[in-house]
Amino acid sequence: MEAKKVAAEKAADFIQDGMIVGLGTGSTAYWAIQRIGARVREGLKIKAIATSQASEELARELGIQQLPFAEIETIDLTIDGADEADPAFHLIKGGGGALLREKIVAAASKKLIIVVDESKVVDKLGRFPLPVEVVPFGHEMTLRKLEQLGCKPVLRTAEGKTFVTDNGNYIADCHFGRIDDPEQLHTVINLIPGTVDNGLFIQMADHIIVGYHDGSVRELEKA
Ligand SMILES: O=C(CO)[C@H](O)[C@H](O)COP(=O)(O)O
């Protein structure tokens, strides 16, 4: 049984009738959305908001009713993946390029459940390059400023072209190697003009569900 799938399916069991649910992005969130779709077909009544065009399309195909963000005041529960999670529940997200919408949806959620496989649980963040969303105008300068923070920024490409986010921006993948103070780094990156946001999610997760390759799951609670 796939580790990502068991974690995601476990998280989908937390959803109850009447909830407004945030749908994450990526290959783990995919399994959560599939399971939510199956529960909707069994009669679960929810409304959803997606964190990317890809997840929005998947939810539509599965018959999950979605709301425009303008009609939402609070999201009851969001289920999303992550690229790394540390013991303080700080995360790196944005491997799929959806970090900005994911952060907006997470910030509007009463509860954020993160679903990962065992490889994503780390003692220190930073082995996974930190995605930073930057506006196209002057992005070369923005990347140089990011480099001055001690990382190697690489402009993300896909199929030989510069990757463009759902918001029309670029992604700089910043290789830090090890992040000693995620909170401080989060602040200094976002102070650089041209930066829209970065993939550090500082203590936003309420619950982390880890899937293992033997099919077991472990639920981590915030200290
Ligand atoms: O932040 C994300 C997308 O922007 C994803 O949640 C993150 O990259 C994990 O992806 P996956 O579940 O495919 O490993």
UniProtKB/TrEMBL annotation:
Underlying gene: rpiA
PANTHER family referenced in this protein's UniProt entry, alphabetically: RIBOSE-5-PHOSPHATE ISOMERASE
Gene Ontology MF terms in the entry: ribose-5-phosphate isomerase activity
Taxonomic source organism: Paenibacillus oryzae
HAMAP family, per the entry: Rib_5P_isom_A (MF_00170)
Involved pathway(s): Carbohydrate degradation; pentose phosphate pathway; D-ribose 5-phosphate from D-ribulose 5-phosphate (non-oxidative stage): step 1/1
Protein's UniProt name: Ribose-5-phosphate isomerase A
Binding site for substrate: T25, G26, S27, T28, D80, G81, A82, D83, K93, G94, G95, G96, K120
UniProt EC number: 5.3.1.6
Chain's role: Catalyzes the reversible conversion of ribose-5-phosphate to ribulose 5-phosphate.
Family recorded in the similarity comment: Belongs to the ribose 5-phosphate isomerase family.
Catalysis performed (reactions): aldehydo-D-ribose 5-phosphate = D-ribulose 5-phosphate
Pfam families referenced in this protein's UniProt entry, alphabetically: Rib_5-P_isom_A
UniProt keyword Nucleotide-binding, yes or no: no
InterPro entries membership: NagB/RpiA_transferase-like, Ribose5P_isomerase_typA_subgr, Ribose5P_isomerase_type_A
Active-site residues, Swiss-Prot/TrEMBL: E102 (proton acceptor)
Gene Ontology CC, one term: cytosol
UniProt keyword annotations, A-Z: Isomerase
GO biological process, one term: pentose-phosphate shunt, non-oxidative branch
SUBUNIT field: Homodimer.
